[in-house]
Amino acid sequence: MTDAALRELFANQAHASWAGWVNYLFSISTTTPDGVVVIPKKTAMRWRRQMQTHYIDLPEEEKESDRKEVDEYLALLPKTVSCQVPDEMRQLIRQELRYMPNDIEDRIREWLNGLEKDND
Predict the structure, then answer these.
(1) What are the domain boundaries of the chain?
(2) Considering the entire predicted model, what is its pTM?
(3) Burial tier of 62 (Cβ tally within 10 Å: 0-12, 13-18, 19+)
């Protein structure tokens, strides 16, 4: 897969994620007669807290929401297995795995191992 095709694949997923998010945002908000969208205070306060919190420090149920989002991207990886990942990048990914939940870590390790087999 070319870099341009890979970029389009992930851009499509990013747009789908964004569109889903905006749809949700509008569904929980109210719109004033002059078109101003108002987010409920409790929701806005929660989102402010979340955006100021590192992933590792989020409660487990909030991490799970992020994991579900990542699953959408991980589902694309089999389509990209033929791409080349420099050894330095593989080493960096392996170092960062220690901060990830076990199920995500396992899936990324499987992907990296598959890349190494493809490159042999």
Answers:
(1) 1-59
(2) 0.59
(3) middle
pLDDT in tens, 5-35: 878 888 898 899 999 999 999 999 999 999 9
pLDDT tens per residue across span 52-65: 999 889 999 999 99
- The 8-class DSSP code of residue 98 comes to G
* CB proximity list for 81: less than 8 A, separation 6 or greater: 111, 114, 115, 118
Query: What tokens appear for 54 in the block?
Result: 């590192």
Angle between helices 87-96 and 102-119 (to 10 degrees): 160
**Do 66 and 54 touch, CB atoms closer than 8 A?**
no
